[in-house]
Amino acid sequence: MSFFVFGSLNIDKVYKLRHLPEKGETVTCSDYRVNVGGKGLNQAIALHRAGADVKIAGCVGKDGEMLTDYLESSGVDASPVKVADCHSGHCVIEVDENGQNQMILFPGANRKIDVAYCDAFASQLHEGDIVLMQYETSCVEYLAGICHDKGVKVAFNPSPFVPELLSFPYHYIDCLILNDYEAQMITGEKDAEKASGKLLEKMAGGRVVITLGGDGAVYGDSSGYFTVPAVKVDAVDTTGAGDTFTGYFLYVLSKSNDPALAMKTAAKAAAIAVTKVGAAETIPEMKDVESYAI
Length: 294
What we know:
Elements: E1 3-6, E2 10-16, E3 31-37, H1 39-50, E4 54-57, E5 59-60, H2 65-74, E6 82-83, E7 89-95, E8 101-106, H3 115-122, E9 130-134, H4 140-150, E10 153-157, E11 175-179, H5 180-187, H6 192-203, E12 207-211, E13 217-221, E14 224-228, H7 241-256, H8 259-273, H9 286-291
Parallel strand pairs: 1-4, 1-9, 2-7, 5-6, 9-10, 10-11, 11-12
Antiparallel strand pairs: 2-3, 7-8, 12-13, 13-14
Helix pairs in contact: 1-7, 3-4, 5-6, 7-8
């Protein structure tokens, strides 16, 4: 079994503000940073720091060398990433004094992935491998179908939410990991357990995890549901917390087949990540998660 990420690689432009702006309001920025990011990159780093050997597929522009260099120097195999003649994806991230954020995403090269690229990438996959996807790239449905037909396990983080996700072929998905907003938008249910039930019906089985921010996360499968509380910390920046949770959950689950252990470990890893400023660079190593005192 091998781990693969098929996902986005973005240049994050992060602005620190006293508070997030209201409509029509101009807020002066107190700090500005340029970081590596994208849900695909962040989740690949999280999987690797949890303990997995990871290969990532995706697309960057000619300005994206900083993204592939960071992945390779961090231990993630970025050799499948192609370079397109356009700008890399980037994300404008506004972070307030309480660590809460809002984002504007420009897809850029992430939307330049085509069917031929997916076919070439899929040729590397074997039955029992795990591919983690998000919805920041093109051709997600197509690749999910190929993986399903080959017996490759598909984990899907349907983010960001767009109306197309209402008709997504969820029967291709083995593990669905999403936040409460995304779950509500897809199912129409505010209650996380009810939303989990509807998602499991769409998937025809499998596993669902719905993250609830400070209220923890809900896990569901054919045997029932349970909730794991969030680890209480003083959050500085919540950017990348969900990606940290996703990577740690999948790796620990793959090794232990113990959903409760995977959920608790992922919650602890995400809590550590939000105590620092940034995204990929704040994702902890497994040794730090295991030694972290709650």
